Amino acid sequence: MQILEKAPAKINLSLDVLHKRSDGFHEVEMVMTTVDLADRIELTPRPSEISVESESRFVPNDERNLAYRAAKLMKDRFGVEKGVKIFIEKNIPVAAGLAGGSSDAAAVLRGVNRMWELGLGMDELARLGAEIGSDVSFCVYGGTALATGRGEKIQSMQAPPPCWVVLSKPTIGVSTQSIYQNLDLDGAEHPNTTAMVEALKNGDYEGICANVGNTLEGVTLALHEEVGQIKTQMKQAGADAVLMSGSGPTVFSLVEQDARAQRIYNSLKGFCTEVYMVRMLGYRENT
Ligand code: ATP
Description:
Blueprint: E1 3-20, E2 26-46, E3 50-54, H1 66-77, E4 83-89, H2 100-115, H3 122-130, H4 136-141, E5 144-148, E6 153-157, E7 164-169, H5 176-181, H6 193-201, H7 205-210, E8 213-214, H8 217-223, H9 225-236, E9 241-244, E10 251-255, H10 258-269, E11 274-279
Parallel strand pairs: 1-8, 3-4
Antiparallel strand pairs: 1-2, 2-4, 2-5, 5-6, 7-10, 7-11, 9-10
Helix pairs in contact: 1-2, 2-3, 8-9
């Protein structure tokens, strides 16, 4: 039986980098939430092999694919003899700061758990996800959460009040590793995570908008002027809040009013090829 899983993109409402740890990872505090822009993952049973396929030329169709690695991890860890063919309908921009690869991997963890009847709970899948990448644990649950540690410690949070999210990605890919390498923690700006968490708890849309912040934004802005241009354009078009997601280069706007969201989308459409106007999801679709 074929299994379908939705793999939604995430945005960072806030992202703070606290310090570099002795194991080489950075200690972070991130408030993340899912948006209604998703890859579609199709899993088809196979006798023993794992294969992965997508029509996107930016995504590897081999063992480098995070979705492949998720299936391989489950097969090896639980001694599963069966295989799976993974097809990824790629809708999330790649290397964009939207955790597309991590969300695909999380969807495969959930999907093969069902397909191979492994009976694992979400917490167990999230722990396994952390072995693949720091954002995979959050993506296993989706919804809205505070992520700490290197991003793998997840505390579920209340969804933000509904609003539009306009996403715009310039035609550059950004490697997360290179952004961290260029980060000077002393000179960087740090968002107020506590205030963001409070605003979410209170369902306070203005408070959320006032406290968006991303320590990595300054690094990416200095390297890619397109990111700053998109930010300016979105602010001028009347966004309630504007921030770069993850290590970028995607910039998002939060907007309550329909007409204003449409105006921001239209103004960016002529400027960037990848522009999306989607709803905030924010709640868990997987239990
Ligand atoms: P994050 O926000 O977690 O840093 P990202 O959105 O910046 O992630 P991805 O789209 O996940 O980045 O892609 C990062 C790299 O991972 C790409 O260069 C791509 O080649 C590789 N990759 C491996 N598997 C996938 C996948 N299933 N989808 C997208 N990219 C993948």
